């Protein structure tokens, strides 16, 4: 039985996110799953701090956002480092199955935020309204340094407002 009729009847927007070590890890394959539902009730969440995991270290933010297109309804903002570059993380013993999961302040990592915000503006992301659930969501998704949270959360919100809402 498909859940879509229930979501459609109840007016619920379900958002699916690719996530490291979950059932769907890469951006485009997750977007393909969302598109396969052919439902206005099922949309895609792009988590910026998972950028380099989503496309195996390339970090092609613009390509991933454009691929999601009108199915993109939610963006989580934080920075991260490209775990595939420069032997940044040495784990002993070699071969250990480990992940460095970072959601750090914008500017502390390797994500191309100029490309991210430019692409979202070109897509008119913040201006759209979805048939289900209304407005798109852009939110800070920081963790790892609680001592920085009181100012990084504010800085991230202000960045979102400046870049997407032109405040």
TrEMBL record:
Domain of life: Bacteria
Gene3D superfamilies cross-referenced by the UniProt entry: Divalent-metal-dependent TIM barrel enzymes
Domain Xylose isomerase-like TIM barrel: start-end pairs: 3-126
Pfam entry (one): AP_endonuc_2
UniProt keyword NADP present: no
Entry annotated with the keyword Isomerase: yes
Keywords from the named record: Isomerase
Signal peptide (residue range): none
GO molecular function: isomerase activity
Protein known as: Xylose isomerase-like TIM barrel
Organism from which the protein derives: Raoultella planticola (Klebsiella planticola)
């Amino acid at each position: 039985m498909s859940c879509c009729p229930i979501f459609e009847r109840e007016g619920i927007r379900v958002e699916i996110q690719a996530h490291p070590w979950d059932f769907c890890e890469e951006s485009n394959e997750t977007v393909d799953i969302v598109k396969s539902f052919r439902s206005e009730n099922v949309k895609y969440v792009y988590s910026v701090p998972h950028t380099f995991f989503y496309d195996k270290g390339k970090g092609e933010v613009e390509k991933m956002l454009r691929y999601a297109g009108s199915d993109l309804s939610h963006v989580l903002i934080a920075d991260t480092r490209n775990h595939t570059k420069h032997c940044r993380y040495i784990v002993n013993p070699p071969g250990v199955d480990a992940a460095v999961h970072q959601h750090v302040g914008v500017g502390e990592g390797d994500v191309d935020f100029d490309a991210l915000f430019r692409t979202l503006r070109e897509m008119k992301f913040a201006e759209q309204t979805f048939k289900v659930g209304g407005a798109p969501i852009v939110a800070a998704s920081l963790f790892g340094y609680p001592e920085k949270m009181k100012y990084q959360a504010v800085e991230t919100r202000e960045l979102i407002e400046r870049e997407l809402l032109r405040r």
